[in-house]
Amino acid sequence: MFKNKVVWDSKSAIFVLSILSAIPCSFAANDSNGSEKNFKIDYPIPEQKQISGTVTDTDGMPLPGATVQVKGTNIGAITNFDGNFDLTIPGNENILVVSFVGFETKEVSLNAETNVIIVLQADAAALDEVLVVGYGTLSKRRFTGAASSISPEQIVDIPVVSVENAIIGQVAGVQVQEVSGEPGSSPNIKIRGSGSISAGSDPLFVVDGIPISKNLTSVNIQGNLARRGGSFQAPPVNPLATINPNDIISMEILKDASSTAIYGSRGGNGVVLITTKNGTPSEEGVFSFNTYYSSQEVANKLDLMNAEELIEYTRDARNNPYVQDVPGASADDPIGPGERGNGNYELPESFLNWDGTDTDWQDLIFRTGSIQSYNLSYASPIENNTSYYVSGGYFTQEGIIPDSQFERYSLMLNLDSQLTDKLNLDLRIAPSITENQREPASAPYFARPPGIVYSALVHSPTVRPYNEDGTINQTNNQSHLGAGTTSASNPLAIIPAVDDNLFQFQTRTSLGLSYELIPNLTFKTFGGSYINIYNRDFYRGNTLLFRESTEGESYAQASSSTEINWLWENTINWIKEYDNHFINAVAGYSMQKDNVTVKQVQADNFPDDLVTTISGGQVFAGSSVKEQWSLLSALLRVNYSYKDKYLFTGTIRSDKSSRFGKNNQTGYFPSFSAGWRINEEEFLSSVDALSELKLRFSWGQTGNFEIPNYGAIGLLSPLNYNFNGNEVNGLIQSTIPNPDLTWEKATQTNFGIELGLFNNRLFLLADYYETINNDLLLFVSIPSVSGFETTLQNIGEVENKGFEVALRTRNLVGEFTWETNFNFSTNKNEVLSLNANNEPIFSSGSAGIRHITRVGDPIGSYFGYVVDGIYQSEEDIANSPEDTEARNPAPGDFKFLDVNGDGKITPDDRTVTGSYFPDFTWGITNTFTYKGIDFSFLVQGVEGNEILNLTSRHLKNGEANFNSYAVFNERWRSPLEPGNGSIPRADRESGSHGNNNRPSSFQVEDGSFIRLRNVTLGYSLNTKDTFLGGTFDRFRVYLTGTNLATFTDYLGYNPEVSNNTTSALTPGEDYGTYPLTTSLTLGFNLNF
Length: 1088
Fold this sequence. Notes:
The protein is built from 13 helices and 58 strands. The protein has 1088 residues and is mainly β. A hairpin with a 2-residue loop joins strand 26 (498-518) and strand 27. Belongs to the TonB-dependent receptor family.
């Protein structure tokens, strides 16, 4: 039929492909007769053209990573870090399609242009931030509560053990106090103040849906290491230190009752929701490697007397009382052996014949510490409807005190899978191991073991640290008047003599299954477990000498604690959006149970230090405790919005707890909130500058769950009884039951406003809140006829109220950017009632009764006499109120205020001398970027808090029995040399005189401070374009300085210090706490 039919052989195929691909070619082909003929195809090549440009947002900020593609082709490019692109395209193509996540896709006609500026508009729906709330998520524009969000960028670049430290100074209404610099230590965190006296004030932490408590297990295994006749408890360990900050994708801090009522009895102190990372929605998986190295030094050293100053001070302390108390005595009299009450004390040999020794004990105990962190993770793409995130991390911190160290090993696997069209699975597994080698740094010099820091502070600079043979000097340590009356251990001897090792294994595991019953209605079942295993091995060796001892006091303690917590929750979530209405409702029930086992064995009298385990000594005590609690809950929350303009949220939760009395085991916790987005109203539609204006109101009730497990029932304790000459084991009732014991309740009202201007370049959040905590758990005195002294009851009321402001501004946009974040918070804490007679609570911290909790003042206020100047003459003493507590006051002694006006100074004149609660806190962060360079700094401030500086008992007491703060060089010497007007005379008999060393406002110091918290300089490369031939997607290097400078009048190491963070009744004490560090960090972030 066809005479010249072409045979389709391989050459024919090349011909066709050449035409289709527009490639000119020549070839030979056979016709139907088998004869070969030559063909030449010349296909015209379209003219090429070069296009360049920049992609920005409406503020002119570059959009790195935007996709620029020729419409209808595969020709395209990705913008670099500065938003620039270069593209070679066919001359007949004139339309580009530009897209970027969170912005509307845009088509651009080129016409004759070869360099273009492409501006993308924000996609309102895509950019609507999603807030993680309890049992779900919610659009921020529809959220009516008070909450703050923390991004991962605010966490990963800062060298911290625990994630709470990374948010210091960054969130309004949240005070995170870095009370200690000890490796692995726990910061003190409060959300809107403290509302409980005895049940704890820590917020609830929820990690991937699993609640984690900071209060109980970590404290139980610490034990009380004997000091004199009492005890001194080590700081609690921090369970949150097991979480790798690099695994966190978001943190939400829920502050008001509207947002925390969904957690009912555990939401009274606020809730922190931590969400970890999962797979990536991109087409390719992402490996990330993050590492940094940090060098750490003690942030500041205390200004103490040198040897020459101390010798002069000591002579004054001897001469003043000697001349005062001994008739006819003179300061020129020979120095005698002396007795207490007779000021002629014997001076130490090192003072009488000073050889020039001037030891700086702080230099000897502090070293350069370090932090190393290594984290490798992989976020998979979605394949077969499944994605996952897996990570491994190692973190180690060497403390600034030798032999103190913290290590963490962490793993994580997060898997999400869509099993069917309606069934989804999420799995979370996060095991970790921490090892903490501790040294007894935060304790007084007289504890067992003594505190290293405090011992270094009180030690005399006239004493040599080492003997001539190189051994540690532990006998020639007399640094005081009246050798043999008191002394401290050589801190260099404490370090090698004490081993305190803490091992912790923790794992969080959860499995969730969600099933879409019908469109918009989803059922989810969630099961989780939290396992915490602690082991502590403590040994104090024979080589350590205490005070004037010539032999050591060996002691060992082995403790273990196992906590197994399981959780099962079932919820139904309904989301419906139609016309102008939006409804999101969640309902469900929750069951949780916790079992804790604590064991402890103690031994002493070890013959040597070769065998340091319990079996090496004589076991003298042991204990074993098993406790459990359970919680059964039902919950309901409904969010409704109309036109995204009128917003309403209602929540209620019921909790039934085993911890409370049988008559009150169930509590109900409701909340309600409303919001009005006024910017959506027609009458404001013409105000172009207004991008957001929302008014918020919320009211609700929550509870406090953290009380003893068996506070409501009568407990039995062992008691031995001699029966017919034989000791018989028995039991006795040790507590009285209270079947009506119930929750502490918090009722909170919140008013808020959100204001956004100029497309949210300026965004303001402001809140005012009032919280009343009532039914506080207090021990109340009862008639002795009952056989008991006190019983635990719900009585008392505390109020917290304050104002919060958070302001974010984008000051400069474009190639050079500048963003500022500022927050400011106030909180006033006041006790409203205590008991039937409102009798105050007097509390002993580390040094006798120095705290008071009374109506009208903050919880745990400082208590003592108020210093009203210094006596300048005998006439001044005669004209002042009689001090009945002083023996023979003299010029140079403190004059105290007659508070009750009865004309004399008595114990009734003791009053509140200060409070640990600040008047306000603030923080400001400035971030600058230019091309690949970023620079930021954070300054935080606290104003109005006071510190009870108990180091003043020895370093500022005037007795010269130890070294002293250098400020005592400005002491009163005579009417002609009155010093600075606030420091009394030197007086070795101050204690027996009862004048200058009694609890008073002299030991209370202003803790206000301004701190340069963080400074970071970084540089990032879009490596596919510029680095290593495209091996890596992103490379960043940064340098961060932490705690670079602190401006404060406080004499101690840290104006945020608090030795006891587990008791609200005795806050703010400084008794030689492990100092804070200043650090310099070099880090790298790598994505590939």
